[in-house]
Amino acid sequence: MTTHTTRMLILGSGPAGLSAAIYGARAGLAPIVVQGIQPGGQLMTTTDVENYPGFKDVIQGPWLMEQMQAQAEHVGTRMMWDTIVEIDLSRRPFRLIGDSGDVYEGDALVIATGAQAKWLGLDSEEALKGKGVSACATCDGFFFRGKKIAVIGGGNTAVEEALYLTNHSDDVTLIHRRDSFRAEKILQDRLFAHKNVKVLWNKEVETFVDGGGTAGLVALELVDTVTGEKSRLDVEGGFVAIGHHPATELFRGHIELDSDHYIKVETGSTRTSVPGVFACGDVMDKIYRQAVTAAGTGCMAALDVERFLAEADFEVAEAAE
Ligand code: FAD
Ligand code: NAP
Question: Tens digit of pLDDT for each residue in 8-25?
């Protein structure tokens, strides 16, 4: 067992964690990033990224994350192949334990553990991910220009994604398993007023149909949740929008979470309910969930850490006088 100590400990190696690391390293805080089970984060699971600023041509998600990691290491970040399994935030330095048995001590902690989309759990869904089935309209909607698209879900995300997709398609169907949405009324009003969106109530997807060869998704097989009647809807894009799981199980009971289990931060900052602990990226953001917003809040977290440590050091120096 080894104990690693740092001024700035970062959990997560997605755009939020690595951006925090770049800023923290350049501020001389010699950060440690514990990478977790998905080094590079969610963008490692995708191909084309067309909306990260700075690149005129299409770039690949894994390439972008390799570049971010190389930049973070180049300026002095230490990367650890480990996943945090236990935390003690009751005193500083904070003490965290990795899967490897190693101990990580940080004067400040940045949580950037991200969130994962919920899926329906169908084999056909898994087989067609990236071939017509997606969980991010902002990321992938552009690839379905002029095509028939379906969105599955009934919350704010589903309604917003359906409305967003009308920028790319004039044939969007929103499929919901009940006969009323849980989305806010204002969003519902906007949806019902839109001529290019149809709603299918009381329907669940049974199968995402593969057209074979390079065709990808060609249709959805549906079942009526009231009558049991089966039907088929021809679509080339299927967006699953049934919510996200923020990776916060580890922090329950240690820092304040909201009713959807996202980490609560003070408005306009990355400060959590525990002084010295900061959160950035998808783990504290249930609205935007983009690489660029994750990177932006990662930068904010590093600046907040710098300020926090400077104040803490000043208090220690004053007490010693
Ligand atoms: P994540 O990228 O989720 O990273 C979380 C990190 O935390 C991971 O490294 C994980 O290993 C680590 N971690 C978790 N638990 C622990 C633990 N206990 N200990 C240590 N580490 C831990 N956004 C765009 O802007 N453009 C796109 O084109 C785009 N395409 C996408 C395509 C797909 C298929 C997906 C799934 C997402 C896409 N997104 C896109 C969204 C984007 O990937 C996310 O918004 C972004 O990755 C969030 O960054 P993050 O750093 O907050 O978290
Ligand atoms: P959500 O509110 O939990 O809604 C999930 C939807 O998916 C529900 O309608 C649910 O159906 C449906 N669903 C869940 N599991 C399903 C399954 N297995 N099969 C079929 N349908 C399924 O999730 P969300 O829409 O992602 O929103 C999460 C939180 O973020 C909410 O608090 C929301 O207000 C917030 N948010 C806010 C904004 C905004 O303010 N603009 C935007 C996005 C999200 P049932 O209704 O039948 O349960």
Answer: 999 999 999 999 999 999
**Both tokens assigned to 94:** 């904070």
Q: Is the CB of 120 under 6 A from ligand 2?
A: yes
What would the DSSP string read from start to end of 283-321? Answer: GS-SS---HHHHHHHHHHHHHHHHHHHHHHHHHHHHHH-
Sorting pLDDT into bands at 50, 70 and 90, what band is 4? very high
- Residue identified by tokens 């192949």 is 81
12 ligand 2 Cβ < 6 A: no
Distances from the Cα of 321 to the Cα of 92, 289, 307, 311, 318, angstroms:
21, 46, 21, 16, 5
| pLDDT for residue 258 | 97
CA distance 126 to 184: 30
The 10 Å CB-count burial string (b at 16+, else e) for 90-129 is eebbbbbbbeeebbbbbbbbbbbbbbebeebebebbeebb
Angstrom distance (rounded) from CA 274 to CA 265: 10
Q: Is the CB of 288 under 6 A from ligand 2?
A: no
Q: Cα(308) to centroid of ligand 2, in Å?
A: 36
Centroid of ligand 2 to alpha carbon of 226 (angstroms): 21
Measured CA to CA, the distance from residue 197 to residue 105 in angstroms comes to: 52
Query: Which ligand is nearest to the Cα of residue 160, counting in written order?
Result: 2
Residue 113 contacts residue 87 (beta carbons within 8 Å): no
Packing angle, helices 15-26 and 61-74, rounded to 10: 20
User: CB burial class (10 A; 0-12, 13-18, 19+) of residue 141?
Assistant: buried
